[in-house]
Amino acid sequence: MGEAYFRGLIISKLCNDPNYNQKFRKVEAIFDEPDEWLPYWEKLKAVLPTIEPKYNL
């Protein structure tokens, strides 16, 4: 299920979604507990700030 959240955040960031920060906080709360997705979440958090929006909602 984690993959769907990751894709949603990436798409939200690419589309310059005005609710991106709210969505990020929600997903961050989900992955706050250590589980199998935690290493991937840490990598995604490092990459998300470097993504430039390509579209505008």
Automatic annotation (TrEMBL):
Q: What is this protein called?
A: Uncharacterized protein
